[in-house]
């Protein structure tokens, strides 16, 4: 997918490395695909796409059901198995309100995902969230259901 100054060099590098191990990987359209066109092709299961590189954001909830569940809108790999569904259902079950249970359920799913390698993360990004020192009660923790609920400011303007 096109976008950003590193997209083309990175895609070229991957193609070069795949060639070195004997894989003949080519751009579907002869070049990187524009963002919206790329997702149109992916969402419509375009048969020309065998492998792709894309990005996603997990937000504050790491539950994998939205990306890897059998009916997940963003499961662009179309990966599905009984074991994957069972492990995701364990993470999403009412038993998961118990932190120890949830931790173990995540560990089992992560090990399974690692072994199956239905997706191979290659890049990670960090998000910087600048907050003015006048802002009070802002909490961006993963377990805060509504980070905006108690936000206020200590002054009308900067002094």
TrEMBL record:
InterPro entries the UniProt entry points to: SBP_5
Keywords for this protein: Signal, Transport
Keyword Signal assigned: yes
Domain of life: Bacteria
GO molecular function, one term: peptide transmembrane transporter activity
One of the GO biological process terms: peptide transport
Family to which this protein belongs: Belongs to the bacterial solute-binding protein 5 family.
PANTHER family on file: OLIGOPEPTIDE-BINDING PROTEIN APPA, PERIPLASMIC BINDING COMPONENT OF ABC TRANSPORTER
Designated name of the protein: Extracellular solute-binding protein
Source taxonomy: Bacteria, Bacillati, Bacillota, Bacilli, Lactobacillales
